[in-house]
Design goal:
Oligomer: single chain
CATH superfamily: Alpha/Beta hydrolase fold, catalytic domain
Helix content: 25-40%
Shape: globular
Distance between the termini: 59 Å
CATH topology: Rossmann fold
Radius of gyration: 20 Å
Order of helices and strands: HEEEHHEEHHEHEHEEEEEEHEEEH
Number of helices: 9
Strand order of the largest sheet: 1-2-4-3-7-8-11-16-15-14
CATH architecture: 3-Layer(aba) Sandwich
Structural class: alpha/beta
Number of domains: 1
Largest sheet: 10 strands, mixed
Length: about 350
């Protein structure tokens, strides 16, 4: 009886963790008219209820197609930056959307349980498990979970195209940390739809699962080459704990230890200028204070298909101005604006 009660409580908490504000599930066959404002919505994908938030700027008109940016939160425990409402405060993307005229979509990842506990489900007590289920959201960026997050974003793109007046040649994705890793995966698998991507503080490959201790025998996953060229801006802080890559402790809760391996920032950049067939010698510029270095790798068509932005004083964060001279949001929008989809 106690076991059944525990299962019921856990299921209830997982359901509650999706939130209840503005709860609605729309029929995809129904054309929904939106006006400027903020909306919190749900969508059923493969039998799972997924949530997302939409910000529509004041300049939106149903007759005027607009660009759209999907902004992905980071993995989190506790959920300081995991829920969409925290993530959009961290990025100031809504404000930029209002200034420049684009739609922002903030999807939510799946509950923590799907990823970290898949191999070691009995290491945590109920009271250690409780905050993980209720406070955290994760992305399945390296196909290491039964949750199909690529399918979720693809379904969401199709749904929003049917409901909003979206410029289909200007669909972009950015994300922080785990959201950055998911951004790479989306750029790889949805290159027929997405025009450009901009991962922040995240790498393009690593261990396909987490292990109790570093293990050099496990396979390292590398995000596959997209079928179409994918313009990409990669942003990193030089002091980011993951900048140099290698093994690091992902989680330590009670007796539970979880380790993962990540590619370095330089390895991620090298991977993508190879994918986009860029010149390996970049053009280099810097901010006026010299604390932000921008490397631009161009292909044979002289397009900036890969840009690598390093904040010399930055850590594992979304870079804002102030304290930095240039904000990540401003740089990302400038890059996206210059890269419509090439068919």
């Amino acid at each position: 009886m106690k076991k059944i009660l525990s299962i019921v409580i856990i299921c209830f908490l997982v359901g509650c963790s999706f939130g209840v504000q503005g709860f609605s599930i729309h029929n995809d066959d129904t054309k929904t008219q939106f006006s400027p404002g903020d909306y919190f919505r749900f969508i059923n994908v493969d039998g799972r209820i997924r949530s997302y938030r939409i910000h529509i700027p004041p300049s939106y008109e149903n007759s005027n197609p607009m660009p759209v940016i999907f902004s992905l939160h980071g993995d989190g425990f506790p959920a300081v930056n995991s829920f969409t409402q925290e993530h959009y405060y961290a990025t100031d993307m809504d404000q930029k959307a209002d200034e420049e005229g684009f739609i922002v979509v903030y999807p939510n990842g799946g509950p923590f349980l799907y990823r970290y506990l898949v191999d070691y489900p009995f290491y945590l007590s109920f009271f250690e498990l409780l905050p993980l289920l209720t406070l955290s959201r994760q992305w399945s960026y390296w196909n290491n979970s039964e949750v199909d997050d690529v399918g979720f974003i693809k379904s969401l793109i199709n749904k929003l195209i049917s409901e909003l007046n979206i410029n289909s040649s200007r669909i972009y994705v950015t994300g922080l940390s785990g959201g950055a890793m998911m951004t790479y995966q989306l750029g790889s698998e949805l290159s027929d739809v997405i025009a450009a991507i901009a991962p922040v503080a995240g790498c393009s490959g690593g261990s396909s699962k987490y292990v109790p201790e570093p293990d050099t025998t496990i396979p390292i996953y590398i995000v596959p080459k997209p079928l179409n060229t994918m313009p990409i801006m990669i942003l990193y802080g030089l002091n980011d704990i993951s900048y140099d890559g290698g093994w690091f402790n992902v989680l330590s809760v009670g007796k539970y230890q979880s380790w993962g391996y990540l590619l370095s920032a330089e390895e991620s950049v090298s991977l993508w200028f190879e994918y986009n067939e860029c010149n390996q010698v970049p053009e280099i510029s810097e901010s006026q204070d010299g604390r932000i270095i921008i490397k631009s790798y161009k292909n044979q068509y002289n397009e900036s298909n890969v840009m690598f932005v390093t904040y010399l004083d930055g850590g594992h964060e979304w870079f804002k101005s102030p304290p930095y001279e240039l904000s990540a949001t401003d740089l990302i929008w400038e890059f996206f604006e210059a890269h419509p989809k090439q068919y």
